[in-house]
Write a structure and sequence with these properties.
Blueprint (H helix, E strand, L loop, with lengths): L25 E6 L3 H12 L4 E4 L13 E2 L1 H9 L5 H4 L3 E10 L2 E12 L2 H14 L3 E3 L3 E4 L8 E7 L2 E12 L15 E2 L5 E7 L10 E7 L2 E7 L5 E7 L1 H7 L2 H12 L13 E5 L2 E2 L4 E2 L2 E3 L14 H20 L6 H28 L1 H13 L4 H8 L4
Parallel strand pairs: 1-2, 1-9, 2-6, 4-12, 9-18
Antiparallel strand pairs: 3-5, 4-5, 7-8, 8-9, 10-16, 11-14, 11-15, 12-13, 13-14, 17-18
Bound molecules: flavin-adenine dinucleotide.
């Protein structure tokens, strides 16, 4: 994937690693080009704001994720002019969820959004942002220069052994769970008992896994979600208890044992797939706006992914933050920090509380078994559960 324009200077750094700040400040520098960063950058550019988007990865890149865009995420894409994006990429309509635990299964038939690989989705969101004027720099790690004033912020960029500085009137941290733009002492700390995330992709979905269905296996050490992607691969994403991972001898082994005890169809070689882990999942930073940096997406706080809506929060957050920062750039908003705090609480934090409650239920094996049994008794019993999980507004 190519960048729309490059903000990289011709020069580089001197032997001591110093460089001069380059050119005019950007209105906004957005660090992290996952769904939160691309949405923020694209929505800002659509409003005429000069934006630089930076990511340390080269795209397309894989990402640990259940790859399910729920109706809330699709509604945000629609509102922001990206309604056709998922279907253009061949996203698979999701029409059912199968919940499995301790040999019991219950299925819930209902439209649940779409399944789409993160390599395809994230690259397409970046392209959409670039098409409205966002300058994009892949393969570039950003960090904050310490000891400098908050306005304009100076962001150090590093690609390979070259480093240079850019300035932004506003800086957005959309760096995901690593919260890696800010110095260590300002980063979000994980909640006690938080699970770790893990994911792998099997090259071909084995028999027993149908496209259009989400399979969720719940066991003592956590849960594993499986979904067939648009190209026939099987995505596996898990939230696991770190102690259980250690006791099982690794992520793959624990995932294999959860699938086996839940009685989902076997995934050949599941323990040996190339599993990737994430930092501990449930976390919230002390402040949403820190040292003049606005957090959005997972960087602003995250809860366990059972309800599959981190991407919905990321894009809705990006849409809302862009409107606020565009007003601030135009001189129409003097306290963007306060407005973002309020908007975040209203649009995202409340919803995360509900998801946290769902995750607590699913933490307890006997509660999960009770839920599966209840769902098995009749489809009407599934309605309140699904209403919580996939509320469209
Ligand atoms: C196991 C699991 C399953 C999940 N399942 C689902 C699901 O089915 N549906 C759903 O909606 N959500 C799901 N989620 C949540 C979803 O993956 C996240 O909420 C979503 O990716 C958040 O987007 P983001 O843009 O905030 O961060 P990310 O997508 O993590 O993007 C952050 C970007 O920042 C870049 N970056 C980080 N630090 C720097 C730096 N210093 N300089 C430059 N770049 C940097 C990274 O390279 C990365 O590209 C799941 C999460 C997990 C862990």
């Amino acid at each position: 994937m190519t960048s729309a324009a490059t903000a990289e200077p011709e020069g580089g750094i001197d032997g001591a690693g110093r460089s001069e700040s380059q050119g005019e400040p950007y209105d906004v520098v957005v660090v992290g080009a996952g769904p939160a960063g691309s949405m923020t950058a694209g929505e800002l550019a659509r409003r005429g704001v000069r934006v630089l988007l930076v990511d340390r990865a080269e795209f397309p890149r894989p990402k640990v994720c259940g790859c399910c865009l729920n109706p809330r995420a699709l509604a945000t894409l629609e509102r922001t002019g990206l309604g056709g994006l998922a279907s253009r990429l061949g996203a698979v309509d999701l029409t059912a969820m199968e919940l499995a635990t301790a040999g019991r299964r219950a299925s819930i038939e209902r439209p649940l959004g779409v399944a789409l690989s993160r390599d395809a989705l994230d690259a397409a969101l970046i392209e959409a942002a670039a098409s409205v004027g966002v300058e994009f720099l892949p393969g570039t790690t950003a960090s904050l220069r310490p000891g400098l004033p908050d306005t304009p912020r100076v962001v150090r960029l590093q690609r390979g052994d070259r480093a240079w500085d850019v300035r932004g009137r506003f800086v957005v941290s959309a760096t995901g769970l690593t919260d890696g733009l800010l110095p260590v002492e300002n980063r979000a700390t994980p909640a006690t008992g938080a699970k770790l995330g893990a994911g792998a992709i099997a090259p071909v979905a084995p028999s027993g896994y149908e496209p259009g269905r989400i399979y969720m296996a719940c066991g003592d050490g956590g849960y594993v979600g499986l979904v067939v992607l648009e190209d026939g691969r099987l995505d596996l994403a898990a939230a696991l208890d770190p102690d259980a991972v250690r006791d099982a001898g690794g992520i793959g082994r624990l995932a294999a044992s959860i699938l086996a005890t839940a009685s989902l169809p076997p995934v050949p070689g599941v323990a040996g797939l190339s599993w990737k882990g994430t930092p501990l999942l449930t976390r919230r930073p002390a402040r949403l706006v820190e040292r003049g940096v606005f957090r959005v997406g997972d960087s602003a706080g995250y809860v366990e992914p059972f309800t599959g809506e981190g991407m919905a929060w990321a894009v809705a957050g990006g849409e809302a933050l862009a409107a606020i920062l565009a007003d601030a750039v135009a001189g129409l908003e003097t306290r963007p920090d306060r407005r973002w705090d309020l908007a975040y609480r209203r649009r995202i934090a409340r919803r995360q509380l509900t998801c946290r409650a769902v995750s607590r239920v699913l933490r307890s094996p006997w509660m999960t078994r009770g839920l599966v049994r209840a769902l098995g008794l009749g489809p009407s019993l599934a309605r309140p559960f699904l209403a919580i999980m996939h509320k469209a507004t």
